[in-house]
Amino acid sequence: MSRFRPPTLARRLLEWGIPSGQQEFLLGDLEEEARRLEFRKGRAAARRWYWRQSLAALAALSRPGSNQSSPSSALRRTGEVAMQTLLQDLRFGLRQIVKNPSFSLVAILTLALGIGANTAIFSVVDAILVDPLPYREPSILVKIWNHWPNFDRGSISFPEYEDFQEGLAGLQQIGLHNVRGINLTAGQGKPEFVLSSNVAGDLFPMLGVKPLVGRWLEDSDGQPGKANKLLLSYGLWQRRFGGRQDVVGMELELESGRHEVVGVMPQDFGYPIPDIQVWRPLELTEPVRLSRGGHNFEVLARLEEGTGLAQLEEQMDALGARLRRDYPQMYPQTSAFGVHAVPLKDEIVGPVRRGLLILLAAVGAVLLIACANVAHLMLARSSSRRRELAVRGAMGAGGLRLAGQMLAESVVLSALGGALGVFIAYSAVSLLRSLNPPGIPRLQDVAVDQRALALTVLLTLLSALLFGLAPARRAWRMDLCQALREDGRQSSAGGRLKGLLVATEVALAVMLLVGAGLLMRSFLSLQNVDPGFDSSNLLTARVQLSSARFPDHQARSLFLEQVLQRLQAQPGVEAAAVSNTVPMAGFSTDSWVTLEGYQPETEGEIPSLQYRIASPRLFKALGIDLLDGRVFQDTDRADSPQVVIVSRSTAEKYWPGENPIGKRLKIGWGPLMPWREVVGVVSDVRQRGLDVPPDPTFYAPLSQRSTPWSIVLVRGRGAALPNRLIEEQVQAVDPAQPVYAVRTMDEIVYRSQGRPRFNLVLLGVFAASALLLSVVGIYGVISYSVGRRRHDIGVGLALGARPRHVLALAMGREMKQALAGALVGVAGALLLGQAMEGLLFGVDSFDPATLLGVLAVLLFSALLAGLRPAQRALTVDPVVALRGD
Amino acid sequence: MTDFHLGEFEQLVLLALMRLGDNAYGVTVREELLSQGGRQASLGTVYKTLERLQEKGCVSTRIGQPTAERGGRRKKFYRVEPLGARALERSLQALRRMAEGLDGEAEVP
Q1: Is this prediction's ipTM beyond 0.95?
Q2: Which region holds residue A335: left if phi is over 0, alpha if psi is between -120 and 50, else beta?
């Protein structure tokens, strides 16, 4: 067992607060006894004991002056005296804190909560929004996209990439990449699915992150026939090669063949997405180089020094126009088609920016409320200690010295609150990271950073000065005679300040509560949305069929149909099906289509529909209703007439008022594409999330269309299905075929709401803190004011005032201030609601129900908080009060 | 002749020192106060009292050797000086006289 160590903070406090003459012996005694106690009662008890003893010793031994062995030696130098005075004051402050535990606890916790939460959220915002991306000169990196009439993030084909290289003079470097799943077949253990990126051009030099081992991939690595090279991620290097330094030149077997390792990237490198495990050169085969319609890539580029985004946009507009002119059959003939650039940072953090900024504002408001509360507490305390200070003054303490003592107490309070706040910040950040809500980018990069810490320290010091200043100023300018007369009625100095504090607190609390209320209502209305499918008892898993082993549609559909047959025969299986993706999984597959008889309103517009592959039982597995016609059957074969099923919204949008059954549809456009006949209409599904209305969708049968990436769905009957069910049946057909992303549909739907849940939980916590802190604040202010107005209340009671009047006297003014604050808060909440517009779903940013509810809750809480201390006013004994005690 | 009176806790501490002889330091004094006197006192209070007694000249101190169980710190041993012994004697006599003639439990040694 390791030796007992005294709690560091307690020991430090002792070393600082106990006179040097006694320090060593006291510390020794404490440690000796604590060890014995640990032996008998355990470490925790010993530490608690040590803390209690330390605080008691500080209170007993650190009296101002007790460390001055002889006054004459201390007076030798003025500097020494000043230091002694400062230490005395600080010790005095500490002693005050120990002597008033409840006051101190409330003040310290309030400060710690404000500072801790603020630091945590600041760190999160800083890491996600402010910190530069971990690449070389990241601010001038841009993603380049095609924009289409109804879609502005269109992928790029290789010929287009070459057009960018030639046609965009404002670019310094350019590279392209994709993300593909690939199966690792070699090595020990099971086949494994990993994410891989094919890259070309200057991608690695442009990002500028040096490989840990070996070299980058270069443009020349992509020559046809010689492209079997790869760059490992740190994780895969550790897993498959045990982190060997001599890994360069070794081989890794992928299903597409053996690949030579050329290097390893560092651990935190994750471009284009964090989970990527392998980078391979894009093999520049003829199909890749020539297929202008092969929109399979994304393009990253670095701007030329001194080129602005606006200049680049000009060149892009020109390029877009040239593409439309040169390839009229490829691109829609409208300026709605073109090329545009988005800064990489916006691309990554854009979706969460607004939510995070609102959280930052919210947490700032919590800090303000916390500060206001501590200010109350300090003001109230300085008033109650007026007489004590007056006595000290009468005995010869100078105004400066008294002010110093008041200030010292608030400095010590703030320091303790700040220390606890830092602790809370660290805990909160690690909690957020471990929760890892889906949909929040860069969260793993979040750490309590130096700037946030510095800001905390600054806030702490500032708050100390701020809170200490008012009481200190009063101590300085105190009129001794008046204060000593102890007539119980003090000047109303600070009264207006306190009124302002109450109003501010209430206003901020109203804003936060309305914000949280709107998010809550919006979240609830999300839960009530009918997604169009039934997610219960539905297991899904992804399967990636390699083009090496499953070269064509026939091979793929044969394999998948075999798997489905086996799954369908398993006990407890209601329906097994295959599709290309499931709703809300974060992937959406859409396709341009040509619809028979549909005339687009704007010229050149090409309708884009969500495109789903469906085995016959898909609709049953997902619980999608057949509205008209029929679902796919086993008689729909590859060589039978080509058929599709459309969703209701497709039919309503493109063939309004007509019978869609028997209409025809083409995937893509042009005379070469075959017409497919609509044989059924099914109900709508929210494909991209609960908050996105159903997209028009069409389904093609698995027997006629398939993709290399597929998802297998199994609906259970009764008990939940075993997690390994799909994997077992897939590998029963082909042992080398890995399965990945095994999830229940409920889980997928849950994860799709990660972002609104993250915002709601955090803002909810902040709003609750704000409410709690304001209630504490109002309670404190009214307690204080009742104490201060005892005399008036006594007079009132003596003259026969009714309880109603007494209550009005005790808390009337504070309630009016709270009401005024609430009204200001409502105005603020309206502004906040507008800022939150994009985060809300199914609720208006001006929501009277939320507003009224919040006002009711807040004013009721304020009333409750005020009533208890105000009731004390009713029990005032007029005789005692009038005696002025 | 001394011109001061001992407080009750000071008496207890002096008695503890006498009982402990050569082994009287913070930890043992506290233990003695608890086990014999039934008095729970913090080390800080004990130190404060010993400090006061020393200022009055009732006790003297001697510094011991550092030990490992104290984190390498030294002990400060206390011993009752003749002045302290006399003051204690006087206090106890006063108590005894005051209790004389009263019934039952109020007897003192």
Answers
A1: no
A2: alpha
